[in-house]
Design a protein that fits this description.
Helices cover 69% and strands 0% of the residues. The chain is mainly α. Helix 3 packs antiparallel against helix 4 (81-93) and helix 3 packs antiparallel against helix 5. The chain is flat, with a radius of gyration of 34 Å.
């Protein structure tokens, strides 16, 4: 028999059937346990007070009001106050505003908002060291009526935790919201 005949015979033969197996039941795959991201979120909350972006927003909050007040009379004299204010936004808030030179409109409209932001920023950030150093400002006073009293340790702990660390965690987020309002006004009037 020739090789070609052997191949033809093999191709004519029925292939062997494998014995039937019971179909496997699909195992339900368990979803992975949910990730616990609470530690990551807590770290993001705590570290926000120590980022450069937070301190740039604080610098903008401190500078926006005096620059805005200074820009009102200078814009009346023809100075390029719109360019100065756009530069301030670009430098401290990281947003490029290109547009007309309506510096007088922005300076006059933003003065009340900038004053409010300045007051909230100065007061809020001053509460942090003031409450952490509470014993220095409460020296010689009666601790019985102080929050966290009647003991010195309780009063200091309460002021440090609630007033010191509490405002240290709160102020970056409040500053972010206030800077967003200032940026929205600047974008509307300077671009």
């Amino acid at each position: 028999m020739a090789i070609s005949e052997k191949l033809r015979q093999k191709s004519r033969q029925k292939p062997r059937q494998q014995p039937r197996q019971k179909p496997r039941q699909k195992q339900r795959s368990q979803p992975p346990p949910p990730r616990d991201d609470s530690a990551v979120r807590a770290w993001l909350l705590v570290r926000e007070a120590f980022t450069a972006g937070t301190w740039r927003r604080v610098a903008y909050a401190l500078l926006a009001f005096p620059v805005g007040v200074l820009c009102v009379p200078l814009a009346l004299l023809g100075a390029p106050t719109g360019r100065w204010q756009r530069g301030l936004v670009r430098r401290f808030l990281g947003r490029e505003l290109s547009g007309s030179s309506r510096g007088l409109a922005h300076a006059t409209a933003a003065v009340p908002l900038n004053l409010l932001v300045l007051a909230v920023t100065v007061y809020g950030w001053s509460l942090v060291p003031m409450n952490l150093g509470w014993p220095l400002r409460a020296a010689g006073s009666d601790y019985a009526d102080a929050w966290g009293g009647p003991t010195f340790e309780g009063a200091w702990a309460f002021h440090a935790i609630v007033g010191g660390f509490g405002f240290l965690l709160l102020m970056p987020w409040l500053g972010r919201a206030l800077a967003a309002a200032q940026l929205r006004l600047a974008a509307a009037l300077l671009s």
